[in-house]
């Protein structure tokens, strides 16, 4: 890896007040470090509750038998993979319009987690599909567009890492995130728009959920756990990215020295 | 309780490979991501500290020397 000097053209403007001051990487770095463990702890608690309900309280499905229990990770993972991409697109848009460095960093910190959930959704879907449909994979609209989402994640990660100048990498990634966001509603509505093998939405705003309440509770707990987990991991990843980006600054130097001292000293 | 015994639980009504294959892979990926993300920050911090000391960044070392490192 090579070091490319970022343009030092950061004008000394009046620092923003209130919550906006956390848009400065220097302010966000310690905040992220303080918040992340709490989100991780919440994720663990919610997942424990969700798994308990999913395995020990929710009854056997009268049609699908026990294999339906895969949905407690499949649906939350699929939701999360779509949400994360939309959040990436949102922060990319903010970054492009407002030219805030932290927005791009957040967007890039989310991508690996989104890709992970996307893969989990595909993997668990395949393992559920085999006993239920008789096939691990079919090229129906839902599955194909979800696979495309995985490639969009890979493309975003590869693109932002391949361009050496961080500012250009940020902008290129942001454009890809925005263009790719078109795919998310396609995934979501694919089961309505096309005649897919994949079943329709189990939960929707318009009508009552087509599943037993206790199953729904377990699934929603797991979805919340996925949210908390994603926030925690993204915050931790943001910290590494901030250090890397701001390595030329005085404050990173001070933070690194202080951390080294606290850890008993690297050398 | 939904299960007559622990072995019934692990057998998952014959769907064990699918159910545990799903949960197992998810667990491994989540654990792996947590380890990688925490290690990445530590490694970055350690690498940048070595780099800063090498180029004498803290004593106002010359910017030009930074390009020669790494």
TrEMBL record, chain A:
Has the keyword Transport been applied to this entry? yes
Localization per Swiss-Prot or TrEMBL: Cell inner membrane; Membrane
Gene Ontology annotations for the cellular component aspect, listed alphabetically: plasma membrane
Membrane topology designation: Multi-pass membrane protein
Keyword Transmembrane set for record: yes
One matching Pfam family, short form?
Answer: Cytochrom_C_asm
Q: Which residues form the Cytochrome c assembly protein domain?
A: 38-198
Residue intervals passing through the bilayer: 35-57, 77-97, 109-129, 141-160, 172-191, 211-236
- Write one Gene Ontology MF term: heme transmembrane transporter activity
- What is a biological process (GO) this protein takes part in? cytochrome complex assembly
- Keyword set, alphabetical order: Cell inner membrane, Cell membrane, Cytochrome c-type biogenesis, Membrane, Transmembrane, Transmembrane helix, Transport
PANTHER family assigned? CYTOCHROME B_B6 PROTEIN-RELATED, HEME EXPORTER PROTEIN C
Instruction: Give a short account of what the protein does.
Output: Required for the export of heme to the periplasm for the biogenesis of c-type cytochromes.
Q: Which family does it belong to?
A: Belongs to the CcmC/CycZ/HelC family.
Instruction: Name the chain's protein.
Output: Heme exporter protein C
The protein's organism comes out as Pseudothauera rhizosphaerae
Automatic annotation (TrEMBL), chain B:
Sorted alphabetically, the Gene Ontology BP terms of this entry are:
cytochrome c biosynthetic process; cytochrome complex assembly; heme transport
Q: Which Pfam families match?
A: CcmD (PF04995)
Which keywords does UniProt give here?
A: Cell inner membrane, Cell membrane, Cytochrome c-type biogenesis, Membrane, Transmembrane, Transmembrane helix, Transport
Name its cellular compartments: Cell inner membrane
Q: How does it sit in the membrane?
A: Single-pass membrane protein
- Which GO terms of the cellular component aspect does the record hold? plasma membrane
The superkingdom listed in its UniProt entry is Bacteria
Show the stretches that span the lipid bilayer: 20-38
The record's section on PANTHER family has:
HEME EXPORTER PROTEIN D
This molecule's function is given as:
Required for the export of heme to the periplasm for the biogenesis of c-type cytochromes.
State the family it belongs to. Belongs to the CcmD/CycX/HelD family.
Q: Kindly provide the name given to this protein in its UniProt entry.
A: Heme exporter protein D
Organism encoding this protein: Pseudothauera rhizosphaerae
Q: What is the lineage of its organism?
A: Bacteria, Pseudomonadati, Pseudomonadota, Betaproteobacteria, Rhodocyclales
The gene coding this protein: ccmD
